[in-house]
Amino acid sequence: MSPRNKEQFKEIRDQRQQELRRSAIQMFSQKGFAAAKISDITSNAKLSHGLFYHYFASKEELYIEVIRDILYDFVELVEKAETFEMTALGKMEWLTDQTHSGSIKEGVYRHILVLQALYSDHLNESAKQEIVKLYKEAVDGIASIIKTGQEEGHFIDGDPEELATYHLSLAHGLLLWNARTENPVELSTDKVLRQLKVLKVEGPVNE
Fold it and tell me: What are the residues whose beta carbons fall under 8 Å from the beta carbon of 174, sequence distance 6 or more?
């Protein structure tokens, strides 16, 4: 077997760090920040306790980093949708599909963790302000798409930011419902966006 080169070692290190981050998202969301121990995170990731400190200085540092990762990914997703050359309705359809793609459990873990962070007493004020700012960026981006959709005649009238909040609340609610029931609701992008769409009134039927 040939010896590993520098790039292979880096790939292994990065993979282990990602395993710790994924495990942390699960443990923090299930147990909360205070109850989740570093040993819970490493054990769940099937990695040694000592390896944790090779990547992170403390549980607090990891907690803040994984929340940042989640929100940066969300903001980037919204920003990507904004760049597409398509109608606002098409952008919202793509964004809704992306939001609900992947593992239901992982989606729930991420959602719970962000909600915990927004109201957490375990974050310093600087970190909390950054998290609130990132979440607001995502909401503002969705609101901007909705405003364009109103101008195009696809979306109902109303404050775009308020409508963006309604949309996110429904998306998160479906995520939580599917995680807690044996009969999950199959995602329908059309139904999720129905609350935003202008109702098309059918004309009279000629007899």
Answer: 100, 185, 187, 192
